[in-house]
Specification:
Elements (H helix, E strand, L loop, with lengths): L1 E6 L2 E3 L5 E9 L4 E9 L6 E7 L4 E3 L7 E6 L4 E6 L8 E11 L2 E6 L3 E5 L2
C-alpha cells in the first residue's frame, strides 16, 4: 500500500503562485508515474501534469507554460509549481501515483487539496 499526502493548497489572487507537494509513504517500490489531477465543482476529474521516475513530463494544454511538475525520488515527493494562476484553475487538486509490482498495476490517490483563485 502507498499513502499520498498533499499540502500547499489555499486561496490566491489571479496572477499569483502556489506550490503543491505530495509525499508518498508505505510500500515505495517502482512508483513509475506520479502526477496531479484536479476536479472543479460539477466537472470531471482531469489530468493536470504527470512525471515519470525518469523525469519525463506531460501537461494539460491549459496549464502548459504556467505549471511545472517536478519530482524528488529520494524523498518520494512530487511537486507542482503553479504560476500565473487563473480563476479557472480553482479546483480540488489530487495527487496520483501508479505502481507496478511484478506486472501488477496499482493506482493510488491522495485526499486532495483545495486551490481557490479569486480576488
Amino acid at each position: 500500500q502507498v499513502q499520498l499526502v498533499e499540502s500547499g493548497g489555499g486561496l490566491v489572487q489571479p496572477g499569483g503562485s502556489l506550490r503543491l507537494s505530495c509525499a508518498a509513504s508505505g510500500t515505495i517500490f517502482n512508483l513509475y508515474v506520479m502526477g496531479w489531477y484536479r476536479q472543479a465543482p460539477g466537472k470531471q476529474r482531469e489530468l493536470v501534469a504527470t512525471i515519470t521516475n525518469g523525469g519525463r513530463t506531460n501537461y494539460a494544454d491549459s496549464v502548459k507554460d504556467r505549471f511545472t511538475i517536478s519530482r524528488d525520488n529520494a524523498k518520494n515527493t512530487v511537486y507542482l509549481q503553479m504560476n500565473s494562476l487563473k480563476p479557472e484553475d480553482t479546483a480540488a487538486y489530487y495527487c496520483n501515483s501508479k505502481q507496478n509490482i511484478f506486472g501488477k498495476e496499482y493506482d493510488y490517490w491522495g485526499q486532495g487539496t483545495q486551490v481557490t483563485v479569486s480576488s
